[in-house]
Design brief:
alpha/beta, eight-stranded mixed sheet, 39 helices, disordered N terminus, binds adenosine-5'-diphosphate, binds magnesium ion
Amino acid sequence: MATATADAKSRNGKQTATKKWVYLFDEVKLAEEAVGGSWDGVRALLGGKGSGLADMTRAGVPVPPGFSITTEACNEYSAKGQQFPEGMWEQAVNALHAVEVKAAKTFGDAANPLLVSVRSGAKFSMPGMMDTVLNLGLNDEIAEGMIKLTSDARFVYDAYRRLIQMFGSVVMGIADEPFEDLITEAKQKKGVKSDVDLAAEDWLRLTGEFKKVYAEHIGSDFPQDPYKQLELAIQAVFKSWNGKRAVDYRNAAGIPHNLGTAVNVQTMVFGNMGESSGTGVAFTRNPSNGDKKLFGDYLMNAQGEDVVAGIRTPISISNLAAEKKAVFDQFVDIVSKLEKHYRDMQDVEFTIERGKLWMLQTRNGKRTARSAIRIAVEMAEEGVISKEEAVMRVTTEHVLQLLHPQFDADAKAKARKDGWMIGTGVNASPGAAVGVAAFDADLAEKWGKAGKAVIMVRPETQPDDVRGMLASKGILTSRGGATSHAAVVARQFGVPCVCGAEALDIDVRNRMFKVGSVIVREGDTISIDGGSGEVFFGELVRVEPDFAREQYLRKLLGWADEFRRLGIYANADYPQDARRAREYGGQGVGLCRTEHMFFQEERLPIVQAMILSEPNSPEELTQLQKLQVFQHDDFYGILKAMDGYPVIIRLLDPPLHEFMPDHEGLALRAAGLRLMGDRPNELKKVEELMTAVEGLREFNPMLGLRGTRLGIMRPELTKMQVRALFEAACQLAKEGVVVHPEIMVAVTNHANEVKLMREMIVAVANEVQEAYGCSIDYKVGTMIELPRAAITADKMAEYSEFFSFGTNDLTQTTFGISRDDAEGKFLLAYVETGLLPENPFQQIDEEGVGYLIRLAVEKGRATRPDIEVGICGEHGGDPKSIAFCHSAGLNYVSCSPFRIPVARLAAAHAALKEKGYKA
Ligand code: ADP
Ligand code: MG
Ligand code: MG
């Protein structure tokens, strides 16, 4: 009898009254009791994998027996300076004995050996981060015993060499290359391509060579004692929780570092026992587009990660129906039950051992944005989840990803025709990416961080590559399928990915790849389409997404609209923006900036002439009349596009010098003209212009003559804008269009400013309405973008029917920093070093700016209870800021038209969270 067994007995200590560190898969009830009944608690205790295995066992799914060592044991192990907590090992050995009984095999017994896998599993799945050791419990003597039992020496030595290889690399930290090189060499010598073509004697020899590699690297022999193997493997899993790869991944995915990982020890089942055995992975729905159809791959006569490692090309799961009907039917039955049970799309692992199906893992599957949205919508329609849950399951990131640019179809067709399409692969993660090829993770990371668009190109990817993948715009591999490491990571982080593009001959050493006669070198630009799997040489033109065709997203956002309290408006300066805003579901225009209308080419000279004229002079009037014609058309277009919805129009805001040519340029021109001396009239004009520009110069233009101050100093300009607006409104009203203009004054500090402007606006409005014989439903209000305005909001509200928070300026003036200067120089350093938690120009600073907003809302409503309040700064499109606006009781947020879908969802999330729904 093997020494291991004798040893085991001596180690099999008595059960003491210590904490329970170990749960058999069929003890899930005890685990539930230990955590007070919550399934989330069980997941935290046993890890995602362990709790899933236990839950499947309870549901009667065929799961190879095993047990989990808890995450608490892992944390305790780290806390105790890498020592097993008291009683843990004894409990594990006892559990192993219980498994021996179930499996009718004995660990370490050559006559009838039990082999196990040792698998890590934290609360949240971390793909590829902590590796599994298979076939644990084998040694020289047991291998011989197994050959007697199975009459299959090839299988046994394949299993044994895998153990030495995995144990060597995962547990002892030997690089994989020396092992893989030996296999490659063996195949070359034999003149075969695939691992399956190696025979028993090859694996026997390789097993010997692997042992040598092991001994050379470690300085001692591969441990023959199965219990020693088990002990070291458990320790390795515990340690890997704090390994660099795992820490990096947790940082990237936002998973806390104090959860710990569980260890699962499970009876081995073998997919590599000949052609009636196999192994595979599958998703219950398509993780790429959400289609409700089984999606996955399998390989016959293979073990463990062979399917995902890209060693052989796997077969689509749909083929299993034809090849092994009974197994397939059982499989379909199990996975559809699992999906109903977990109320989400499942990602499962299975193995068929000599015709018998075993389930090895189930978890909520990772998916693309497109897939996430479709699955949420369809599951709600199937009645599996509620509409509220569907809305909570889709993130604002998903929406952004779905609405990111795609390649222009014509450009693509042309590139194909012209021969620039250099390959196709698996469409693993959608999106159009253009970048320069980088052949390793370090370079991809370096270039990516330096702001270059990079496509990382690798034969296949490994966990160590993740940081490079995250810094890349796209990922391209020549090996592996839709479930390969590259594909899984890419989908999770929304990076476009094409994998398994087999035509690409990637030569990492020489930093290039060849496809036919085309050679692509490091630094060359390529384009990949992760949605179609195509790879192009050079840069392809990208186009904006087509919201109209996104039927699932539209349905989901329709539900979101039912739940949200905030209105969603758009910032739109032109009729086309207003139309887009409507198409995306906007309910109004929260900010229409009139200055943009002044910058157009044919108008600028008129604007300049107007500025140069004396205030209130006939010349000023003449120029203003010309401008009014343009303004009229602009307002007509926007109000018409937003038929029935409110449109908030802001009177001219920026300092006038912004419309003038720059002084230095003029000086140069004047110098040239003086030198030539032949065009005195032109010189005179330029000199006049210079004087005018000089006169408009300010030390601090953003704090100077702008906004309402300008409107007061140049009243005719204000009146022209109001007249153009009301004439357009009256004309539309006559045409039967419903208009709700709201006139907004900017950069106000004092209620008296608002009062004066209001009087001016109302006078012109009355005049025009009378002339047209119509009555327009309109409002007059002010922006709140200076601290004094917020603090005196009760007074401002006396003359304002609405407030709109201009959070860009409010942030600048509250912090006393100018954004353009700050972001280039110190602000990002502030955020990086943690002096500021976030960039306050991206996410509202709740403590300071947010305080002013809440104050202004409260004071404004005290004066005028029905005052309408909203936000029109860039923050209006930021999900966290939107949540703040919801909590501050605003009526609406206004953002760029493209951000509207995100804002609709974020507003619904805020409302649902308030009701207790969780993401
Ligand atoms: P990961 O967390 O990386 O998915 P797993 O622990 O799930 O790692 O295992 C890696 C591979 O080994 C998977 O293909 C899995 O199905 C397989 N495997 C794990 N345990 C066993 C077992 N007891 N019998 C057969 N295959 C197993
Ligand atoms: Mg793994
Ligand atoms: Mg797995």
